[in-house]
Design a protein that fits this description.
homodimer; about 160 residues; mainly alpha; Arc Repressor Mutant, subunit A; two-stranded antiparallel sheet; about 5% strand; elongated; DNA-binding; WH-like_DNA-bd_sf (chains A, B); MarR family transcriptional regulator (chains A, B); HTH_MarR-typ (chains A, B); WH_DNA-bd_sf (chains A, B); DNA-binding transcription factor activity (chains A, B)
DNA sequence: TATTGTTATACTCTATAACTATA
DNA sequence: TATAGTTATAGAGTATAACAATA
């Protein structure tokens, strides 16, 4: 990794493509989080492009399955998805027969969600495949690294640290 | 239904927003990276909404400033920005007088970028403000935590973990 | 009036691909 | 033919705001 010594006074000293320096940007947590997240998602989808669900869809379906009787908006809030976008995601999942909307009589403004049998099946399938893809995309980390990374991310969010995964 | 801590004074809500369970999702590196990144960006922009540049624009300008004579496409690749999007970003920055395009005579297909004086000024201002915002958004981390987090993110990416790249 | 969800618009960014102008 | 950049389109997702139905 050569440091590309370019004249600091030369206004147009060419820099080779692989010598672009990030400077201290790689010391920024926000920048590094973004680059790492984009890279990991990239790796997951380039490793296996024919997944039946997008990652966001899988997340929604999984949480719906784990929280029967939860309102649509409550799930959206927890997953930091905008309500307006949640409407589109749920509509798409409903059209594919993976989730059902249910308006409870005690509060007819709200919408409860629950998985269909097909939804349960797809989520179970995705769980298995994503576990492997997730691990593969972060294969550079050993078990301790991974646990430590998760602990730090939880700490940023103010979430209680995960037991173990 | 999962245990929902609802007192008798609460309005009837089977699963309140803060009682939605994530299950083992918070043990997924890809999920936690996404949630953490969205949260950090959220905090940065809710802390100070009147920033002169979007984060992506600042990143591009900063790297242009650190790499005089670098091609537009080389910078886009390094920052994992698509060329087609890079064209729009640079055009916007150029219209605002922050960056200049320069077509070198030795290869008239390529475009070199360099900051204008106004661009340099804006970047310097943003650097200062973002350093503080970045730290504020991750204030739950102490110095050791932050260094460790950066080390782990670098490791995922396969980047050298030292100070600068 | 406040809350829940929907619709709509604008904007950011990705994914593709076609296109130009060079090389 | 290949490369560098541009343009265009489709899609995901965010940011906002207006809106309807319900509480």
């Amino acid at each position: 990794m050569t440091a590309a010594p370019q004249g600091s006074d030369d206004p147009v000293a060419p820099v080779p493509a692989d010598a672009v320096a990030l400077g201290d940007l790689d010391g920024s947590v926000s920048f590094m989080l973004r680059i790492a997240q984009v890279t990991v998602y990239d790796r997951i989808f380039s490793a296996e492009a024919d997944l039946p669900l997008k990652l966001g869809e899988h997340t929604v379906l999984k949480v719906v399955g784990d929280n029967p009787g939860a309102r649509q908006g409550a799930i959206a809030d927890k997953l930091m998805i905008k309500w307006s976008h949640m409407t589109k995601v749920v509509s798409g999942l409903e059209e594919r027969g993976l989730v059902e909307r249910y308006v409870p009589p005690q509060d007819r403004r709200s919408v409860f969600l629950r998985l269909t049998d097909a939804g349960r099946h797809v989520v179970a399938d995705m769980n298995l495949r994503l576990d492997a893809l997730d691990a593969g995309a972060t294969a550079a980390l050993d078990a301790d690294d991974r646990a430590e990374l998760l602990r730090l991310l939880h700490k940023i969010l103010g979430w209680p640290s995960a037991t173990s995964s």
